[in-house]
Design brief:
By secondary structure, this protein is an alpha+beta fold. The protein is built from nine helices and 14 strands. It has helices at residues 6-55, 157-208, 223-270, 274-299, 311-323, 326-329, 347-364, 396-400, 415-425; strands at residues 56-58, 64-66, 82-89, 92-96, 117-123, 129-138, 147-155, 309-310, 332-336, 342-343, 368-376, 379-386, 429-436, 439-447. Helix 4 runs parallel beside helix 9 (415-425) and helix 7 (347-364) packs antiparallel against helix 9 (415-425). The two termini are 43 Å apart. Residues 249-450 form the Histidine kinase domain. This is histidine kinase. It is an enzyme of class 2 (transferase).
């Protein structure tokens, strides 16, 4: 299903890309927030460190002490996560916060430059990880000289907890952003694929005869495709014209031999060779009908978008022709068609269809043939109804098949097949039925013509 849908593939690719991008964004934002919190924590620890430096003094016994320690209550609570420590070089521990209890902070084995701040990640009590800010200070003579290392540290779990809270608050917002981006991606895919839908609609119009070419009213990316399709249509038209010309040449080439054959048939009849004349006449009729069928097939792709045939006028003209035949002269004919009704078909092709249907009706009707036409939605349905014996329902497909015969009377079995071919070429259809003894209906379904005539 995914492989067959470009829209679905684009939507899935867009959704996956959005989720990956927002996942990377969530990770990056959490990392940036963690670093920001560490910097803020380091700045707060630096303030405490400055307070320690300012609080260094000598007691009554001359010992170096922190006379004014930081007043944060967490320094007084054992293992609170906030610690300070002062060590002298090289004597060792000078003082530490009560929160360290009896634990010494392990300082790196380095020799920091005087007055510079150093930031470390060191191990703390209970296996914790601490963020430590350290400064090495050279004491003045009034404090006995020498150098001390002062360090203030805080449990990094506080930073991790703040980062986790930030991430939890961030995820719902990112989920909302993901939803909005997926919706925007769906809209983008829909808008982006709209030209393809336009191409499909235009191709449907070409197939139905309502248009001839795709044209150039497409975006730059689709226009080359439309141009190639129009090029193929141009090639098809040239091939159709060639085929029609060859069919016309064939008809013209056979016209003279068929006329000669008809003359020979007449001479044979005058000489009394009626059986041979009848056989040759049947052969000539078969050849003529085959030529007519090939001409009809050559017309199948020559469908004009603006074609319109006035059904009433065409039907009346064909009825007048069939009425003059020996089979039609004995029948009562009726044409009941709205004069303003038009079908989207060439008038000559509609006459060809009605000629085949009326010829069949004239040969099989007992007394009466009725031609009607009425609009049906977007179609025009032309019906030829006679009071003949009808066709058994099981034999209807055979009657429409090329060369199909269901009787032994005159004809070649090509008339209905030719009519069906022509109707199909104009996106219509020929249907036989309902059929029963005493009533036979042949219905031609054709598209309605555009414009006032097609009302």
């Amino acid at each position: 299903m995914i492989a067959g849908s470009l829209r679905l593939r684009l939507l899935i690719a867009g959704a996956v890309s959005i989720l990956l991008a927002l996942g990377v964004a969530a990770f990056g934002l959490s990392l940036l927030f963690e670093r920001h919190v560490e910097r803020r924590t380091a700045a707060d620890l630096t303030v405490v460190l400055d307070r320690l430096v300012a609080g260094l003094d000598r007691d009554a016994d001359g010992r170096l002490v922190v006379a004014d320690p930081p007043d944060d209550p967490r320094f007084e609570k054992p293992l609170s996560g906030l610690y300070w420590q002062v060590t002298a070089e090289p004597s060792g521990l000078v003082d530490r916060s009560r929160s360290l209890w009896d634990i010494d902070l392990p300082l790196p084995q380095d020799e920091p430059s005087e007055g510079a701040l150093h930031q470390h990640h060191i191990d703390g009590p209970g296996g914790t990880s601490l963020l430590a800010i350290e400064r090495r200070v050279v004491l003045p003579a009034r404090l006995g000289g020498g150098a001390v290392r002062l360090v203030v540290a805080r449990d990094r779990a506080d930073v991790a907890a703040a980062t986790a809270d930030f991430t939890r608050d961030l995820l719902p917002f990112l989920a909302l952003v993901a939803l909005l981006l997926v919706i925007a991606s769906a809209v983008q895919v829909r808008v982006g694929l709209r030209p393809l839908a336009a191409v499909q609609a235009r191709l449907a119009a070409i197939r139905s005869g309502r248009a001839e070419r795709l044209g150039t009213a497409f975006p730059d990316e689709v226009r080359p495709l439309a141009g190639e399709v129009d090029g193929l249509l141009d090639l098809r038209d040239r091939q159709v014209e060639t085929a029609r010309a060859r069919a016309a040449d064939l008809a013209h080439g056979l016209k003279t031999p068929l006329q000669v054959l008809a003359g020979d048939v007449d001479r044979l009849r005058r000489k009394g060779e009626a059986a041979i004349a009848a056989d040759l006449d049947a052969v000539g009729e078969t050849m003529r009908r085959h030529v007519e069928r090939e001409l009809a097939r050559a017309r199948r792709t020559a469908v004009a978008a603006d074609a319109a045939a006035p059904v009433a006028a065409v039907a009346a003209r064909v009825v007048e022709v069939v009425r003059r035949t020996p089979a039609g002269d004995r029948l009562e004919w009726e044409v009941a068609v709205d004069p303003g009704l038009a079908a989207r078909i060439a008038p000559d092709d509609l006459a060809e269809i009605l000629g085949a249907l009326l010829d069949n009706a004239a040969r099989h009707a007992r007394e009466r043939v009725v031609v009607t036409a009425a609009p049906d939605g977007g179609e025009v349905v032309v019906r030829v109804v006679d009071d003949g014996p009808g066709i058994p329902a099981a034999l209807v497909p055979q009657a429409l098949r090329r060369g199909g015969r269901i009787d032994t009377g005159p004809g070649t079995g090509l008339g209905l097949a030719i009519a069906s071919d022509i109707a199909d070429a104009w996106n219509g259809a020929l249907r036989l039925g309902p059929t029963e003894p005493g009533r036979m209906t042949a219905a031609v379904h054709l598209p309605r013509a555009a414009g006032p005539q097609g009302r």
